[in-house]
Design brief:
By secondary structure, the chain is mainly alpha-helical. Helices cover 81% and strands 0% of the residues. It is globular, with a radius of gyration of 18 Å.
């Protein structure tokens, strides 16, 4: 835990330096992207006020420069912050706007991640009927992408989502469990082909 925290602190320091350079250069788009990353780091370490400030700045600029991909990424981070703050409805609003903005094919990976995040919040709220369509869309998006470490890891998240949903619905339990196993096996196989043993092990560990 200490080593992980140390890495986050180091990352925050590096990002702050980069943000200062981007600000000095007047590169608003680059500064917004860095502020979004910095906000994500602050979410991870529980510095919610700092996260809020950086994400608000990043979102304002990304909208001003009409960068839909960046705005979608910022809104995903903002959704994660709202989850950490115990504000699920605000989190869902951010995730849904992010999904809408990430409509282009080049944003499939981001859209899959956001859909998986939104599905988790909906599941926790007991809105089970809205969960599977999001997971199905995420799985489709990921399968349309070339194999990569990021895609394999995202597939694990989708598989876990199906598995968790299967435990909450008797009507679709078996179907969802089979879908979970298929996605997790797919993730493990993809990770194994890429030599990513950690992700492969993580995927297989959730099959039991």
């Amino acid at each position: 835990v200490q080593s992980a925290l140390g890495r986050y602190v180091e990352a925050a320091g590096t990002l702050k330096t980069a943000l200062g350079i981007a600000d000095t250069a007047g590169d608003r788009r680059r500064a917004a992207a860095i502020a979004a990353e910095l906000g994500s780091v602050y979410v991870a370490v529980g510095s919610h006020d700092a996260a809020d400030a950086n994400l608000a700045r990043a979102l304002e600029v990304s909208r001003a420069v009409a960068d839909r991909g960046l705005a979608a990424a910022v809104l995903n981070n903002l959704g994660n912050l709202r989850v950490a703050q115990g504000k699920p409805n605000e989190a869902l609003a951010a995730y849904r706007e992010s999904i809408d903005l990430a409509a282009a094919p080049e944003h499939r990976l981001l859209r899959a991640r956001v859909s998986t995040n939104a599905a988790a919040v909906l599941r926790q709220q007991g809105k089970h009927g809205e969960v599977r369509p999001l997971l199905d869309r995420a799985a489709d998006d990921l399968r349309a992408l070339p194999a990569s470490h990021e895609v394999a890891f995202a597939l694990v998240g989708v598989g876990i989502g199906y598995r968790d949903l299967s435990r909450l619905t008797s009507a679709e339990h078996d179907v969802l469990l089979l879908r979970a196993a298929a996605v997790l096996n797919e993730a493990a196989a993809q990770a194994d082909r890429l030599g990513d043993r950690r992700t492969a092990s993580y995927a297989l560990g959730h099959l039991g």
